[in-house]
Amino acid sequence: MVTMLPKEDYKVVGTRPVRHDGVDKVTGRALYGADMNLAGLLHGKVLRSPHAHARIKSIDTSRAEAHPDVKAVVTSADLAPMSPIPQVARQGVPIGENILAKDKVLYKGHPIAAVAAVNAHVAEEALALIDVEYEVLPSVSTVMEALEPGAAVLHEHWIERGGGDYIAASKNIADHEQHVLGDIEAGFAAADQVFEREYTTKTVHQGYIEPHTATAFWAADGAPNDRLTIWSSSQGHFAMRDSTAAVLGIPNSQIKVVPMEIGGGFGGKTLAYLEAVSAVLSKKTGKPVKSTMTRIEVLEASGPTAGGHLKCKIGVTNEGRITAAQIYFAFEGGAYPGAPLPGSCAAVFAPYFIENVQIDGYDIMTNKPKTAAYRAPGAPIVCFASESLLDEIAQALDMDPVDFRLLNVATPGTRRADGVVNGPIGARETMDAIKAHPHYNTALEGPNRGRGIAMGFCRNNSGMASAIANVLSNGSVSLIEGSMDIGGSRTAIAQMFAETLGLPIEDVIPTVGDTDSVGFTSTSGGSGVAYKSGFAAYEAANDVKRQFIQRAAMLWEADEDDVEYVDGELRHKSDTELTMPFKELASRMPETGGPIVGRANLNPGGSAGSYAANIVDVEVDPETGKVEILRFTAFQDVGIAVHPSYVEGQIQGGTVQGIGWALNEEYYMSDDGAMLNSSLLDYRMPTALDLPMIDAVVLEVPNPAHPYGVKGVGEANIVPPLAALANAIHDAVGVRMYDLPMNPQSVTKAIADSE
Length: 755
Known about the structure:
Shape: globular
Structural class: alpha+beta
Number of helices: 21
Largest sheet: 7 strands, mixed
Helix content: 25-40%
Strand order of the largest sheet: 3-5-1-12-9-10-11
Distance between the termini: 62 Å
Radius of gyration: 27 Å
């Protein structure tokens, strides 16, 4: 049983220390994946399909291999034998055909072959020397196209799935996830009014600035220690190791992955793309090989999130009580299975206690890159539908939109539709905070101005984690953790470690260890890093504490039960003259038994979901359709804010990404399946010029399953902006927006259609 420490006793947790890696990052000393430049380095480049869907009839690499500056060429034949693609995604099982295509290409940009050459320019030129003969096939770019009768089928060996009220039977359906709570028909029968609407969203990208890159060195000279070393920027170096081992058909013990700093990921760097390619090129040449994507390759060939088609239906009494809620959603999984169905099902109605619910989610194959996670995967899409419809219902009932939500709020002990019984959730506290905030209670004046609110949720995850604490002779501690730092977690984890031992944060030196140096740690995602690795740091600190008590007891010739550790000091419980500071005992390690190393290896349960909410004011130009954001307040229940500045930054960052998703961002596709806006000039993400200051309101409803009350803060914040902005636009100009993005063309069309 974990005892959560009282917040009023915290000395380090809840403060705002300077981040340990800050100076290195602002001065350029920090090393990212593309900074690796080893002796004899070769450069890899990938040949990619110009077609969205085609059969590969032949690949001839002889001309490229004959080039004097080309040192190796690889195709899918150089990877481990590939099994047929399963119809349902398997967690943690990589898809070799997404690394290098075998028989078919399934999206424009699909990798086919790769070369290693003396420099990047020669490697790129040599791609033109690889001759590929294609049989071009029809393509499908959206859910609706993929489900049409006679639509092109991506995986012919699959069986037909689907068939029913919402979706036709098709071989392009990979998976169906359904959750039923109560009696949906009885719930709608009990309603005085039933509302049903249809929504669509487009494919969007995470928008990280650093492209994917991987450097590999695999001498493959037959020596007993013949191992592959990979340097890459990812959200999980253990996952990169295991995925690469599976694709290459070798034991994971034969690979060491060294984590580099990461220039953004947001879920998009959880999959391996270049690691195996660089590895087989290195094996063939005996030299290190570095492969790096261009921006176009990132957008065309890494994993965006899904576009979707949704139908949402909600029944209510005239007093505002929700009697039933139902949603159907079909997501574009891209070329291979794995659309974010589970997180979407968990999130869609999570802020509310509804006794009768039915959720049906479908994973649909399209000729686009395989989807990857994107911050609260799937939740922004489904909550765009549910929160937009709830706003419409509140208006029809002439109820305040917050009061309507509070009437139906989920509370601890109620059950979500996906089966989870709510623990210490903060849905009510989040709604109460909206209601009480000055933003909500300040009148909004002026023509074509409107205010919108929305709720959001992310279930948050945990996972395996490891931490190793090496006590140094001067009383500092080297803390090695296994979680990639994608949001300031190094410092936050060090804070929890320092708090547990009563040390100043400056005395803790946190680093992320490679896959040989620390125990397995699951990927940094699901808002689980501070939870799981913070827990590991807490346990490692307690291990250090136990060893310090043993050493002090030995020196004082006392029983261990008579020694206590309080605020960085050893004390004898009955003899007040016997005390010893942490630093003094650290200096005496040689004479008391040698090094002191604390460790923790665990897989903690108890992670708790996080709720978020937005209030947003907009002004809409009815002539151009431009939406200007005037004011934005973002709320989130974070458990306990370990480092409040990082928490506020996470809330602001997720909010901005949600704004881009809502107003601008989309994959603009040609009729033949090509992305036409594959640059950051044409793929329009918000800049500082597009945004007001995001006012972050941090709400603390502690999670008692964690020693420091941690829940997770990285994802729920991206969920509510989509619906909040749609609701604000309606309040401003009186039109409901059912399709994303709500760009000027869409807004002007909606206004014109309403007149």
